[in-house]
Amino acid sequence: MSSDRQHCPRCTRPKSHCVCAFIPHMDSRTRILILQHSSEVKHALNTARLAALGLSNATLLVGEVFEQLPAVLAQTQYQACLLFPGDTALPLIAYAEQACAQPLLLIVPDGTWRKAHKILHKNPLLATLPRVALPDGLRSRYRLRKAPMDGAVSTLEAIVHALNQLEAPHNFDALLAPFEKLIDDQITAMGEEVFSRNYSK
């Protein structure tokens, strides 16, 4: 088997493009629970996995129906809320001061908008949670894809933005290092000329 086909068991990237050296180890007061739709596991970027690897207080669950949720939400040391936009969502910053008294359990669906909505539909317990949203106008650093809507960012970027708000002045931008490395590698593979012609505008 060629080395190109061998994958790192940790970051799941081909060993020739392993990003483990770029993944930090960061602690957070906020607990992050990522509910990843099973269709996202083999995504080229899989930023949810990068977030879970970089944060000591993060858990990644994969599936559509998450039977563990009742047990997770029963942990009284955390106040649970769902990071997902909607008419009833409150600005996440409104919870920042409150999070100093009781840390948050921030539940983050991971998948396309359709898959994320499916996770919400198949796990009705999520609808009972306070819903919070990030500020308007955020821009993704993923330079190789046009955002499907204004403010759309990757799961990793959403978590970084959330933690930067909740735990300021502590900064979590270091979590983005492997994400940036993956993007740079993709640009290198396609060539600067192709990138400039199709994506740089």
TrEMBL record:
Family per similarity comment: Belongs to the TDD superfamily. DTWD2 family.
Keywords noted in UniProt: S-adenosyl-L-methionine, Transferase, tRNA processing
GO BP terms in the entry: tRNA processing
Pfam families: DTW
Domain DTW: 4-191
Protein name, UniProt field: tRNA-uridine aminocarboxypropyltransferase
Protein's UniProt keywords contain Cytoplasm: no
EC number: 2.5.1.25
Lineage top rank: taxon: Bacteria
UniProt GO molecular function: tRNA-uridine aminocarboxypropyltransferase activity
Enzyme class: transferase
